[in-house]
Amino acid sequence: MRFAIFLSGSVLQSRLCYAAKVADEYSHLFGTPSQSETFDYLIVGGGNSGLVAAMRLSVEGNYSVAVVEAGGFYQDDAGNTTEFPAYNSQYMDEPGTIDWKLTTKPQAQLGGRSVAYAQGKTLGGSTARNAMVYQRGTASFYDLWATAVGDTSYDWNNILPFLKKSVSFTPADGELRGGPAGTSDMTAFDPEAGPLNVGYWNYFVPVSAAFAKGMETLGLVETPTGMNSGEVLGYAQFPAAIDSETQLRDSSQTSFLKAAANCAGERLRIYPNTLAKRIVFNAKKAASGVVVSSGGPEYVINVKREVVLAAGAFRTPQLLMASGVGPPGVLEENNVTTVRSPRIRCSLHSRWCLTAQVVEQPEYKALAEEEYRQSVSGPLTAFAVNYICK
Protein backbone atom coordinates (compact mmCIF):
# COMPACT_ATOMS: atom_id res chain seq x y z
CA MET A 1 0.00 0.00 0.00
CA ARG A 2 1.40 3.40 -0.92
CA PHE A 3 0.03 6.82 -0.05
CA ALA A 4 0.95 9.85 -2.13
CA ILE A 5 0.28 13.46 -1.19
CA PHE A 6 -0.01 15.53 -4.33
CA LEU A 7 1.36 19.06 -4.21
CA SER A 8 -0.35 21.40 -6.64
CA GLY A 9 0.99 24.61 -8.13
CA SER A 10 3.88 25.43 -10.41
CA VAL A 11 7.38 24.26 -9.61
CA LEU A 12 10.40 26.47 -9.14
CA GLN A 13 11.43 27.79 -12.52
CA SER A 14 15.11 28.12 -11.67
CA ARG A 15 17.29 25.42 -10.19
CA LEU A 16 17.99 25.96 -6.50
CA CYS A 17 21.28 24.10 -6.58
CA TYR A 18 22.84 24.27 -10.02
CA ALA A 19 21.92 25.57 -13.44
CA ALA A 20 24.45 24.06 -15.86
CA LYS A 21 23.24 21.32 -18.18
CA VAL A 22 23.95 17.95 -16.62
CA ALA A 23 24.63 16.46 -20.06
CA ASP A 24 27.71 18.68 -20.32
CA GLU A 25 29.24 16.93 -17.31
CA TYR A 26 29.14 13.61 -19.16
CA SER A 27 29.79 14.76 -22.73
CA HIS A 28 33.34 13.36 -22.67
CA LEU A 29 31.77 9.89 -22.41
CA PHE A 30 29.41 10.22 -25.37
CA GLY A 31 29.76 7.72 -28.18
CA THR A 32 29.70 8.99 -31.76
CA PRO A 33 26.22 8.58 -33.31
CA SER A 34 26.00 6.59 -36.57
CA GLN A 35 29.55 5.31 -36.12
CA SER A 36 29.90 1.57 -35.49
CA GLU A 37 32.27 0.71 -32.65
CA THR A 38 33.20 -2.44 -30.74
CA PHE A 39 33.22 -2.92 -26.96
CA ASP A 40 33.66 -5.81 -24.57
CA TYR A 41 30.13 -5.31 -23.24
CA LEU A 42 27.09 -3.45 -24.51
CA ILE A 43 24.38 -2.63 -21.98
CA VAL A 44 20.93 -1.82 -23.36
CA GLY A 45 19.16 0.44 -20.87
CA GLY A 46 20.73 3.09 -18.65
CA GLY A 47 18.46 2.57 -15.66
CA ASN A 48 18.80 1.04 -12.23
CA SER A 49 20.52 -2.23 -13.11
CA GLY A 50 22.14 -1.05 -16.34
CA LEU A 51 24.22 1.72 -14.80
CA VAL A 52 25.24 -0.48 -11.88
CA ALA A 53 26.52 -3.07 -14.35
CA ALA A 54 28.26 -0.35 -16.37
CA MET A 55 30.16 0.88 -13.33
CA ARG A 56 31.13 -2.56 -12.05
CA LEU A 57 32.32 -3.77 -15.45
CA SER A 58 34.19 -0.63 -16.52
CA VAL A 59 35.74 0.32 -13.19
CA GLU A 60 36.20 -2.93 -11.28
CA GLY A 61 36.33 -5.29 -14.25
CA ASN A 62 38.50 -3.05 -16.43
CA TYR A 63 36.37 -3.84 -19.50
CA SER A 64 35.30 -1.50 -22.28
CA VAL A 65 31.57 -0.85 -21.90
CA ALA A 66 28.92 0.98 -23.91
CA VAL A 67 25.51 1.98 -22.51
CA VAL A 68 22.62 2.62 -24.89
CA GLU A 69 19.75 4.66 -23.41
CA ALA A 70 16.66 5.86 -25.28
CA GLY A 71 16.28 8.92 -23.03
CA GLY A 72 18.55 11.76 -22.02
CA PHE A 73 19.31 13.45 -18.70
CA TYR A 74 16.28 13.94 -16.48
CA GLN A 75 17.63 17.05 -14.76
CA ASP A 76 17.86 18.79 -18.13
CA ASP A 77 14.58 17.42 -19.48
CA ALA A 78 12.36 17.81 -16.41
CA GLY A 79 14.29 19.93 -13.91
CA ASN A 80 13.03 20.27 -10.35
CA THR A 81 10.11 17.92 -10.85
CA THR A 82 12.53 15.00 -10.77
CA GLU A 83 14.89 16.15 -8.04
CA PHE A 84 12.87 17.52 -5.13
CA PRO A 85 11.06 14.71 -3.27
CA ALA A 86 7.87 16.77 -2.88
CA TYR A 87 7.49 17.18 -6.63
CA ASN A 88 7.55 13.45 -7.29
CA SER A 89 3.76 13.51 -6.99
CA GLN A 90 3.58 15.01 -10.48
CA TYR A 91 4.56 11.62 -11.90
CA MET A 92 1.86 9.61 -10.16
CA ASP A 93 -0.80 10.30 -12.80
CA GLU A 94 1.07 12.19 -15.52
CA PRO A 95 4.20 10.41 -16.79
CA GLY A 96 5.90 13.59 -18.00
CA THR A 97 8.85 13.91 -20.33
CA ILE A 98 11.09 11.17 -18.94
CA ASP A 99 8.72 8.22 -19.23
CA TRP A 100 7.81 5.77 -22.01
CA LYS A 101 4.13 6.73 -21.51
CA LEU A 102 2.89 3.15 -21.61
CA THR A 103 -0.78 2.47 -20.91
CA THR A 104 -2.82 -0.69 -20.51
CA LYS A 105 -5.69 -1.72 -22.71
CA PRO A 106 -9.07 -0.47 -21.39
CA GLN A 107 -9.84 -2.33 -18.16
CA ALA A 108 -13.40 -3.64 -17.78
CA GLN A 109 -13.21 -3.59 -13.98
CA LEU A 110 -12.25 0.11 -14.13
CA GLY A 111 -15.14 1.18 -16.32
CA GLY A 112 -13.09 0.98 -19.49
CA ARG A 113 -10.33 3.23 -18.16
CA SER A 114 -6.72 2.68 -19.22
CA VAL A 115 -3.98 2.80 -16.59
CA ALA A 116 -0.52 4.29 -16.98
CA TYR A 117 2.37 1.86 -16.52
CA ALA A 118 5.38 3.84 -15.36
CA GLN A 119 8.79 3.17 -16.84
CA GLY A 120 11.57 5.72 -16.86
CA LYS A 121 13.01 6.79 -20.20
CA THR A 122 16.14 8.60 -19.10
CA LEU A 123 19.60 7.92 -17.75
CA GLY A 124 18.71 6.68 -14.31
CA GLY A 125 15.60 4.91 -15.55
CA SER A 126 12.81 4.66 -13.03
CA THR A 127 15.18 5.69 -10.22
CA ALA A 128 14.75 9.17 -11.73
CA ARG A 129 10.98 9.17 -11.21
CA ASN A 130 10.12 6.76 -8.39
CA ALA A 131 9.24 7.60 -4.78
CA MET A 132 12.88 7.17 -3.67
CA VAL A 133 11.95 4.64 -0.96
CA TYR A 134 14.95 2.45 -0.12
CA GLN A 135 13.79 -0.89 1.21
CA ARG A 136 15.23 -4.38 0.95
CA GLY A 137 13.19 -7.55 0.88
CA THR A 138 12.74 -9.95 3.75
CA ALA A 139 15.55 -12.45 4.25
CA SER A 140 13.29 -15.44 3.65
CA PHE A 141 12.46 -14.21 0.13
CA TYR A 142 16.13 -14.25 -0.88
CA ASP A 143 16.51 -17.71 0.63
CA LEU A 144 13.52 -18.92 -1.40
CA TRP A 145 15.05 -17.51 -4.59
CA ALA A 146 18.32 -19.31 -3.81
CA THR A 147 16.42 -22.55 -3.34
CA ALA A 148 14.41 -22.04 -6.53
CA VAL A 149 17.53 -21.66 -8.70
CA GLY A 150 19.70 -24.06 -6.72
CA ASP A 151 22.38 -21.46 -5.99
CA THR A 152 23.15 -20.38 -2.41
CA SER A 153 24.93 -17.24 -3.63
CA TYR A 154 21.45 -15.70 -3.91
CA ASP A 155 20.45 -16.28 -0.27
CA TRP A 156 20.23 -13.41 2.21
CA ASN A 157 23.59 -13.94 3.90
CA ASN A 158 25.42 -13.95 0.58
CA ILE A 159 23.46 -11.11 -1.02
CA LEU A 160 23.69 -8.72 1.97
CA PRO A 161 27.39 -7.83 1.45
CA PHE A 162 26.57 -6.68 -2.09
CA LEU A 163 23.57 -4.67 -0.89
CA LYS A 164 25.81 -2.98 1.67
CA LYS A 165 28.53 -2.39 -0.91
CA SER A 166 26.27 -0.21 -3.05
CA VAL A 167 25.02 2.19 -0.38
CA SER A 168 26.42 5.03 1.70
CA PHE A 169 23.98 5.47 4.61
CA THR A 170 23.38 8.61 6.68
CA PRO A 171 21.17 8.45 9.82
CA ALA A 172 18.31 10.91 10.27
CA ASP A 173 18.89 14.41 11.60
CA GLY A 174 16.20 14.61 14.29
CA GLU A 175 16.57 18.37 14.76
CA LEU A 176 16.05 19.24 11.09
CA ARG A 177 13.44 16.54 10.70
CA GLY A 178 11.14 17.93 13.38
CA GLY A 179 9.89 14.50 14.40
CA PRO A 180 10.95 10.96 15.32
CA ALA A 181 14.30 10.07 13.78
CA GLY A 182 13.32 6.53 12.85
CA THR A 183 15.13 3.29 13.58
CA SER A 184 17.76 1.58 11.49
CA ASP A 185 19.97 -1.45 12.00
CA MET A 186 23.39 0.09 11.43
CA THR A 187 24.91 -3.35 10.88
CA ALA A 188 22.83 -3.53 7.68
CA PHE A 189 24.82 -0.63 6.20
CA ASP A 190 28.40 0.39 5.62
CA PRO A 191 28.74 4.18 6.11
CA GLU A 192 31.84 4.25 3.89
CA ALA A 193 30.41 2.27 0.98
CA GLY A 194 28.49 3.65 -1.95
CA PRO A 195 28.09 5.23 -4.41
CA LEU A 196 24.31 5.41 -3.83
CA ASN A 197 23.42 7.84 -1.06
CA VAL A 198 20.66 6.72 1.29
CA GLY A 199 19.33 8.84 4.15
CA TYR A 200 16.20 10.40 5.60
CA TRP A 201 14.11 13.36 4.51
CA ASN A 202 14.60 16.47 6.63
CA TYR A 203 10.88 16.73 7.28
CA PHE A 204 8.43 14.67 9.28
CA VAL A 205 5.16 14.85 7.33
CA PRO A 206 2.43 15.67 9.90
CA VAL A 207 0.05 12.96 8.68
CA SER A 208 2.75 10.38 9.41
CA ALA A 209 1.84 10.33 13.09
CA ALA A 210 -1.73 9.38 12.18
CA PHE A 211 -0.41 6.70 9.83
CA ALA A 212 1.65 5.17 12.63
CA LYS A 213 -1.33 5.22 14.99
CA GLY A 214 -3.44 3.53 12.34
CA MET A 215 -0.88 0.75 11.95
CA GLU A 216 -0.88 0.19 15.70
CA THR A 217 -4.67 0.03 15.70
CA LEU A 218 -4.46 -2.72 13.08
CA GLY A 219 -2.14 -4.68 15.34
CA LEU A 220 1.12 -3.97 13.55
CA VAL A 221 4.22 -3.10 15.55
CA GLU A 222 7.05 -0.77 14.61
CA THR A 223 10.07 -2.84 13.62
CA PRO A 224 13.04 -1.89 15.84
CA THR A 225 15.56 -2.47 13.04
CA GLY A 226 13.86 -0.62 10.20
CA MET A 227 13.14 -2.04 6.77
CA ASN A 228 16.62 -3.06 5.59
CA SER A 229 17.83 -5.71 8.01
CA GLY A 230 15.95 -8.62 6.44
CA GLU A 231 13.09 -8.51 8.95
CA VAL A 232 10.35 -6.30 7.54
CA LEU A 233 7.10 -7.49 9.11
CA GLY A 234 5.37 -4.47 10.65
CA TYR A 235 5.82 -0.77 9.94
CA ALA A 236 8.74 1.61 10.15
CA GLN A 237 10.10 4.89 8.89
CA PHE A 238 11.98 4.32 5.68
CA PRO A 239 15.19 5.85 4.35
CA ALA A 240 15.23 7.27 0.85
CA ALA A 241 17.67 7.41 -2.05
CA ILE A 242 18.66 11.03 -1.52
CA ASP A 243 21.76 13.10 -1.01
CA SER A 244 21.50 13.91 2.70
CA GLU A 245 23.29 17.25 2.27
CA THR A 246 21.13 18.62 -0.54
CA GLN A 247 18.02 16.46 0.10
CA LEU A 248 17.77 15.90 -3.66
CA ARG A 249 17.09 12.58 -5.38
CA ASP A 250 20.03 10.24 -5.83
CA SER A 251 19.44 8.01 -8.84
CA SER A 252 21.59 5.41 -10.56
CA GLN A 253 22.71 8.25 -12.83
CA THR A 254 23.88 10.58 -10.06
CA SER A 255 25.49 7.71 -8.16
CA PHE A 256 26.75 4.80 -10.27
CA LEU A 257 27.14 6.60 -13.60
CA LYS A 258 28.83 9.54 -11.92
CA ALA A 259 31.25 7.20 -10.13
CA ALA A 260 32.02 5.40 -13.39
CA ALA A 261 32.52 8.70 -15.21
CA ASN A 262 35.14 9.70 -12.66
CA CYS A 263 37.05 6.41 -12.73
CA ALA A 264 36.49 4.45 -15.95
CA GLY A 265 38.16 6.85 -18.35
CA GLU A 266 38.15 5.69 -21.98
CA ARG A 267 36.64 2.32 -21.02
CA LEU A 268 33.09 3.73 -20.76
CA ARG A 269 30.91 5.21 -23.48
CA ILE A 270 27.27 6.24 -23.22
CA TYR A 271 24.81 6.74 -26.06
CA PRO A 272 21.95 8.94 -24.77
CA ASN A 273 18.79 9.43 -26.82
CA THR A 274 19.65 6.25 -28.69
CA LEU A 275 17.09 3.51 -29.29
CA ALA A 276 18.05 -0.17 -29.46
CA LYS A 277 16.15 -1.68 -32.40
CA ARG A 278 17.19 -5.34 -32.47
CA ILE A 279 19.94 -7.71 -31.40
CA VAL A 280 22.37 -9.06 -33.99
CA PHE A 281 23.13 -12.79 -33.76
CA ASN A 282 26.09 -14.56 -35.36
CA ALA A 283 26.07 -17.97 -37.05
CA LYS A 284 26.22 -19.68 -33.64
CA LYS A 285 23.16 -17.70 -32.51
CA ALA A 286 25.26 -15.76 -30.01
CA ALA A 287 24.62 -12.02 -29.64
CA SER A 288 27.34 -10.10 -31.46
CA GLY A 289 25.90 -6.59 -31.34
CA VAL A 290 22.82 -4.39 -31.38
CA VAL A 291 21.27 -2.30 -34.15
CA VAL A 292 20.58 1.18 -32.77
CA SER A 293 19.41 4.58 -33.94
CA SER A 294 20.28 7.98 -32.49
CA GLY A 295 17.51 9.73 -34.42
CA GLY A 296 19.16 9.14 -37.78
CA PRO A 297 20.32 6.12 -39.81
CA GLU A 298 20.60 2.79 -38.05
CA TYR A 299 24.07 1.56 -37.11
CA VAL A 300 25.52 -1.38 -35.20
CA ILE A 301 27.41 -1.38 -31.91
CA ASN A 302 29.41 -4.61 -31.76
CA VAL A 303 30.53 -6.65 -28.74
CA LYS A 304 33.42 -9.00 -28.06
CA ARG A 305 31.88 -10.62 -25.00
CA GLU A 306 28.20 -10.03 -24.16
CA VAL A 307 25.11 -7.91 -24.76
CA VAL A 308 23.47 -7.14 -21.41
CA LEU A 309 19.74 -6.39 -21.60
CA ALA A 310 18.66 -4.00 -18.85
CA ALA A 311 15.76 -2.28 -20.59
CA GLY A 312 13.14 -2.99 -17.92
CA ALA A 313 10.17 -5.29 -17.49
CA PHE A 314 8.46 -4.10 -20.69
CA ARG A 315 11.24 -3.15 -23.09
CA THR A 316 13.57 -6.10 -22.49
CA PRO A 317 11.06 -8.75 -23.68
CA GLN A 318 9.97 -6.42 -26.49
CA LEU A 319 13.56 -6.11 -27.72
CA LEU A 320 14.03 -9.87 -27.49
CA MET A 321 10.91 -10.52 -29.55
CA ALA A 322 11.84 -7.86 -32.10
CA SER A 323 15.11 -9.77 -32.44
CA GLY A 324 13.47 -13.15 -32.99
CA VAL A 325 13.61 -14.49 -29.43
CA GLY A 326 10.18 -15.34 -28.06
CA PRO A 327 6.92 -17.22 -28.71
CA PRO A 328 6.90 -18.36 -32.38
CA GLY A 329 3.21 -17.50 -32.80
CA VAL A 330 3.72 -13.89 -31.75
CA LEU A 331 6.83 -13.56 -33.90
CA GLU A 332 5.08 -14.99 -36.97
CA GLU A 333 2.16 -12.57 -36.55
CA ASN A 334 4.67 -9.72 -36.73
CA ASN A 335 6.78 -11.17 -39.56
CA VAL A 336 9.80 -11.75 -37.32
CA THR A 337 12.02 -14.76 -38.00
CA THR A 338 12.35 -17.00 -34.93
CA VAL A 339 15.89 -17.39 -33.58
CA ARG A 340 14.95 -19.07 -30.30
CA SER A 341 11.64 -19.62 -28.53
CA PRO A 342 11.94 -19.48 -24.73
CA ARG A 343 9.09 -18.30 -22.50
CA ILE A 344 8.97 -14.55 -22.98
CA ARG A 345 6.29 -12.09 -21.78
CA CYS A 346 4.57 -14.72 -19.62
CA SER A 347 5.13 -13.62 -16.01
CA LEU A 348 4.18 -9.96 -15.59
CA HIS A 349 2.63 -9.25 -12.20
CA SER A 350 1.00 -5.92 -11.40
CA ARG A 351 -0.06 -4.29 -8.14
CA TRP A 352 -2.41 -1.55 -7.08
CA CYS A 353 -1.60 1.81 -5.56
CA LEU A 354 -3.77 3.88 -3.22
CA THR A 355 -3.23 7.63 -3.37
CA ALA A 356 -4.54 10.62 -1.47
CA GLN A 357 -4.74 14.13 -2.85
CA VAL A 358 -4.07 17.27 -0.84
CA VAL A 359 -4.46 20.76 -2.28
CA GLU A 360 -1.68 23.12 -1.33
CA GLN A 361 -1.93 26.80 -0.40
CA PRO A 362 0.33 29.00 -2.60
CA GLU A 363 1.49 30.90 0.49
CA TYR A 364 2.50 27.65 2.13
CA LYS A 365 4.46 26.61 -0.94
CA ALA A 366 6.41 29.88 -0.92
CA LEU A 367 7.29 29.31 2.74
CA ALA A 368 8.41 25.77 1.94
CA GLU A 369 10.71 27.02 -0.81
CA GLU A 370 12.24 29.59 1.52
CA GLU A 371 12.75 26.98 4.25
CA TYR A 372 14.64 24.81 1.81
CA ARG A 373 16.86 27.72 0.77
CA GLN A 374 17.64 28.58 4.37
CA SER A 375 18.15 25.16 5.97
CA VAL A 376 17.73 22.41 3.33
CA SER A 377 14.73 21.11 5.23
CA GLY A 378 10.95 21.33 5.26
CA PRO A 379 8.12 20.06 3.03
CA LEU A 380 10.11 20.19 -0.23
CA THR A 381 12.41 17.49 1.14
CA ALA A 382 9.66 14.89 1.70
CA PHE A 383 7.11 12.97 -0.31
CA ALA A 384 3.93 11.32 1.03
CA VAL A 385 4.35 9.92 4.55
CA ASN A 386 7.47 8.83 6.42
CA TYR A 387 6.31 5.28 7.11
CA ILE A 388 5.73 2.11 5.14
CA CYS A 389 4.24 -1.16 6.30
CA LYS A 390 4.69 -4.75 5.21
From TrEMBL:
Record keyword Signal present: yes
Top-level taxon of origin: Eukaryota
Signal peptide positions on this chain: 1-19
PROSITE patterns: GMC_OXRED_2 (PS00624)
GO molecular function annotation: flavin adenine dinucleotide binding; oxidoreductase activity, acting on CH-OH group of donors
InterPro entries, sorted: FAD/NAD-bd_sf, GMC_OxRdtase, GMC_OxRdtase_N
Residue ranges constituting the Glucose-methanol-choline oxidoreductase N-terminal domain according to the UniProt record: 312-326
Sequence similarity: Belongs to the GMC oxidoreductase family.
Protein's recorded name: Dehydrogenase patE
Organism: Colletotrichum higginsianum
